[in-house]
Amino acid sequence: MCKPLDAIDRRIIVATQAGLPLLAEPYAAIAAQLGLQTDEVLQRVAALQADGVIRRVAAVPNHYALGYRANGMSVWNVTDGRIVELGRQVGGLDYVSHCYQRPRHLPLWPYNLFAMVHGRSREDVEEKVGAIADLLGSHCRGHEVLYSKRILKKTGLRIKE
Amino acid sequence: MDSVDCNIVNQLQEGLPVCARPFDDVAAQLDIPVDELLARLQRLLDDKLLSRFGPMYNAESMGGALSLCAMQVPPDRFDAVAAQVNAFAEVAHNYERDHLLNMWFVIATEHPAQAVAVISDIEQQTGCRVYDMPKQEEFFIGLKLAV
After folding, report:
1. Domain boundaries, chain B
2. One domain, residues A115 and A78
3. Average pLDDT, chain A
4. Mutation site for A-interface testing, chosen from B85, B140, B141, B147 by largest number of A Cβ within 10 Å
5. Residues A131 and A99 in one domain
6. pTM metric for this prediction
7. Which chain B residues in 73-92 lie under 8 Å from chain A, judged by CB atoms?
């Protein structure tokens, strides 16, 4: 994060966090709505992306509706010295959405690499988990796949104006 | 979904340039007019094949904190504890998972100190230990589903 968000950045975020208007010139519409110049909106959105506040401007698929009905949180006990290199490889796989290094909690929780794996069925997920196991090879000392049994709560992340 | 829709879903997951007319290049690549691309995009959203389209914001880069937490909840108290945990506005997602650690939730706050306070409140109210697993490194976010 390079610099804190100012009031105009926050207004742009609030105006776009539910999505971008589906118009040929969407930023002009945002600018008109906020009483700003289009160029200023474009510069600020570009700066937010350069700073990592915006990952990318993209479509988010509804994986369930697209036929990817199974997902498993695969967790791996990976050699610490290799985790950045291997984490990038796992994160680069098409069927992995979120991929993070997280702290172990020994002895209960020895896993330090988390990769959410999506598939068309549980068998499909297991096959992909097997491919990750092959990729990690001897640098992995164990893994598990946790399937969700129930969604207890799911709300979007929203910032306030 | 026809093959054009599939190409739209595949292409638009990659991200669009930030410019005055961001859809022009993709429409040209798909060999369809921009208006058709926008109409198809609207239908994919209406049909919920896409859950959203627009900037993907990163909470941590906005100064906020996001942590994954797990708890080992006694089965006979599971629903009561779920209600206690879900009552916190800072708990964004909560899943029951098939494991000794059977409750997994995400805490999202605008400031990291708030997350620490929420975790301590949850431990006090539920009597269960919260295993806090904040991310230490991020390798990728987003899915590149081929359809």
Report:
1. 3-46, 59-134
2. yes
3. 91
4. B140
5. yes
6. 0.78
7. 82, 85-86, 91-92
Interface contact flag, A101 B53, Cβ < 8 Å: no
In which residue are the tokens 């680069």 written?
A92
CB contact under 8 Å between B95 and A88, yes or no, is: no
In a domain, A2, yes or no: no
Residue A152 belongs to a domain: no
Q: What is the ipTM of this complex?
A: 0.76
Interface of B with A in 95-114 (CB under 8 A): 95-101, 103-105, 108, 110
* Together in a domain, A75 and A120: yes
What integer pLDDT is reported at residue A160 of this predicted model? 52
Instruction: Please report the pLDDT score of residue B51 as a whole number.
Output: 87
pLDDT at position A29 is 98
What is the tens place of the pLDDT at every residue in A99-134?
999 999 999 999 999 999 999 999 999 999 999 999
Query: Exposure pattern of B75-106 as b/e (b: 16+ CB <10 Å)?
Result: eeeeeebbebbeebebbbbbbbbebebbbbbb
Query: According to the CATH classification, is domain B59-134 in 3.30.70.3460?
Result: yes
d(CA A71, CA B131): 22
A19 with B53: Cβ contact below 8 A: yes
A77 shares its domain with A136:
yes
Cis peptide before A107 (omega within 30 of 0): yes
| SS3 at position B44 | helix
Q: Is the pLDDT of residue A1 over 50?
A: no
Per-10-residue mean pLDDT of chain B, 147 residues long, equals 92 93 96 98 94 86 84 97 95 93 92 91 98 90 62
* Residue A39 domain boundaries: 7-50
Contact in structure between B113 and A62 (CB atoms under 8 Å):
no
